[in-house]
Amino acid sequence: MPATDYQGSSASFGRAILSLRRDQVHSMEATHEISGHEMELEAFQRKVAERFMDLSAVGSDDLLSLSWIRKLLECFLSCQEEFRVILSNNKSLVLKSPLDRMIHEYFERSVKALDLCNAIRDGIEQIREWKKLIEIVLCALDNQRMLGEGQFRRAKKALIDLSLSMLDERDTAVLAHRNRSFGRQNAASSKDQHHRNLGHFRSLSWSVSRSWSAARQLQAIGNNLLAPKGNEIVATNGIAVVIYTMNSILLFVMWALVAAIPCQDRGLQVHFSIPRNFTWGAAILSLHERVQEESRKRDRRNACGLLREIYQMDKCTKGLTELADSVQFPLTEEREAEVRLRVQELGRICEAMKEGLDPLERQVREVFHRIVHSRTEGLDSLGRTNHND
Question: Residue 264: which domain range?
Fold first, then answer.
């Protein structure tokens, strides 16, 4: 779906709401109060637009990289905190209809995002298992004075295991015992990595049930996600626009995570339809189209995740496997130099994962806890503290 060229500005958002309210405001005091409120809402829209324009400005080599995904989560956490402050500053409105219903619907969508966070955490753990296999290859072939048949046999076994384990989850998955909740530390990583018949391996994730689907969860978050009507904007003093914005951000961020990271029953068939007067809409639609284009590329169609480092790892290991299959011993100087060059490239990818996966998992954990905290605080404000979480 091509991005629409949005020509609106954050100022137009403020003017639109002010025009809806103008006939209802009669005193100068009320006018000043609303102007301050509108400035707060306008500032929120402007910051959202700036953040997503920054995210969309990256080149194709950085899109969907570990650093870009972390930047996306930083964007979500900042927007979520500003959203929380807006609700806190307008508690009297939050208790009234239809705003109480809209906020409750947002919290229900955010609960669905918690399972996605758990599934993404499982995917990060799966990538770590792949990194361990890469380390076996590096141990066998890197920094070795002589490269013989024994080193190549060990490296080829790890490369084959890696290739099989990176197939789409519908075909096979890496064995990994994982923690059920973000509330506890991972007790122990799987010790069965050398017991492999990967063609028969099934995911043993404890975070979600075997029938759980990331694609269906995304569809549930986006179900009936519609921009507020004029009368709803008036009735909520503009806060309905903020809620719609956060709903859209939540959906896009979760969709992008599912696109990038391996998880159970991935699917990218989520439709984004954003009205022209939302200044952040063009950037989100542009990013949505660019991610979709990545997923349609011939060498990415059956990928278990669109994360840039996964693509680099897959491409590098396939090249190294082909090279290892074709070598004859003793190695010629030219062939040995080619092998060492490939191994160095694989080492750089491994180092990037080593530096990026732990911070990414911490951010996903923080998103999980921030959603829980925001929902609890919001339900307290709505007087629904006994709601079944």
Answer: 41-168+210-376
